[in-house]
Amino acid sequence: MPKIVHHLFNSDEKHLEQIKESLLLGASDLAKNTSVENIKIDDLVNKAEVSRSTFYKVFHSVDSIFKELGKKLSNEITEYTLSHSPAIPDAAARVAIKTKRALLFITKAPFLASLLLKEEWPSSDPNHMMYKDIEKDFMDGKAQGYFSDMPASIGTNLILGCLRGAAKDILETKQPDDYIDKVIYQILISLGVDQKIAAELSKNPASALSVPPTGVASNVASLQNHTKAN
C-alpha cells in the first residue's frame, strides 16, 4: 500500500508541475500585449484552461507567477550560458566579454529580458550561480592585478548593479550604438582597470548570449510579436 500511495503522490506532483509550466507559459504569452499590472488571475486560469483552485495550488498571486517566471528564466539561461562559455584566462577581458554578451542579449530579446527583470535580474543573492560566477571573475581580476583591492562583495555588486541598470536603460529608451561599449568601459574603470586597457577591452567584439534550446526560456522566446512586459 505505501508503494501505491507513493506512486500516486509522484503522479500528482508531476501533474502539478505540468500545470505550473502551462501557467508560466500562459503568463508570458499574456504579457506580450498586456501590462503585468493589468493581468488578472482569471486571465491566467482561462489561458491555461485550469480552475482557480488549481491555480492556488501552485501560485498565490499574479505577482508570484511572474517572479517565478523570471527566476526560472534566469536559472535556465545562466546554466546554459555557463556550460557553453569558452574559457577566457584574462579576467578583465572575461568581465568585458560576458557583460557585452549579456547586454547584447537584452537588445536581441527585449521581451524575454523584460521578464527576467521582474525577478531583479541579475540576482544579488550571493548563493545564486550567476553571482558566484561574477564573484570568481572579480577575484581572478584582482589576483591578476587588473582590479582594485576592494572586498569581493563590493566589486561583484558593482558589476551586477551596472549590468542591471544598463539593461533597464536599453529596455526603456533607445540607446546610441556605442552605449554598451561605454557601459563596459565605465565598469572596468570603476573596478580599477587602466584607462587604455579598459578602452581596448570595451571595444572587443562579442555575440549575444544564446537562448537555451529547451525549457521555459525556449518556449517564451518562440512566442511571436515580442513586446516588453511593462
TrEMBL record:
Endoplasmic reticulum keyword on record: no
Keywords in alphabetical order: DNA-binding
Coiled coil start-end: none
Organism lineage string: Bacteria, Pseudomonadati, Pseudomonadota, Betaproteobacteria, Burkholderiales
Record-annotated DNA-binding residue ranges: 40-59
Domain HTH tetR-type positions: 17-77
Record-annotated membrane-spanning stretches: none
Entry protein name: TetR/AcrR family transcriptional regulator
Tree of life domain: Bacteria
UniProt key word ATP-binding: no
Any GO MF annotation of the entry: DNA binding
Record organism: Polynucleobacter paneuropaeus
